[in-house]
Design brief:
By secondary structure, the protein is mainly α. It has 5 helices and no strands. It has one domain (2-101): Arc Repressor Mutant, subunit A (Orthogonal Bundle). It has helices at residues 2-12, 19-28, 35-45, 50-65, 76-101.
Length: 102
């Protein structure tokens, strides 16, 4: 994920997203850059309008965030399991964010 963050940071600052720049950003963040992953990222982003991709990703994420209607046959046990999964997901998200900041 840090590779994508590096590319987004470069794009946001108006810099060209190329292998050397991505490596510099990663190394500045204390990440040992894997040449293969850097090449794959740059190749995947070649010809992609990053602004449009971000805009479309934000639009697609909105419906996912909406809560589904409760089914009449919904069992309380399943609801408890969902809450556990939600908490685990929140913990995983927090762990991922903490990796960004040290």
């Amino acid at each position: 994920m840090e590779y994508v963050y590096a590319a987004m940071l470069l794009h946001k600052t108006g810099k060209k997203v190329d292998e050397a720049s991505v490596k510099k950003v990663l190394e500045a963040a204390g990440v040992k850059a894997d040449d293969g992953r850097v090449k794959a990222l740059v190749a995947a982003l070649d010809g992609v309008n990053i602004d449009d991709a971000i805009k479309n990703a934000a639009v697609m994420a909105a419906p996912v965030a909406a809560a589904p209607a409760q089914d009449a046959g919904h069992k309380p046990e399943a609801k408890k399991e969902e809450k556990k999964d939600d908490k685990a997901s929140e913990e995983a998200s927090a762990a991922g964010l903490s990796a960004l900041f040290g």
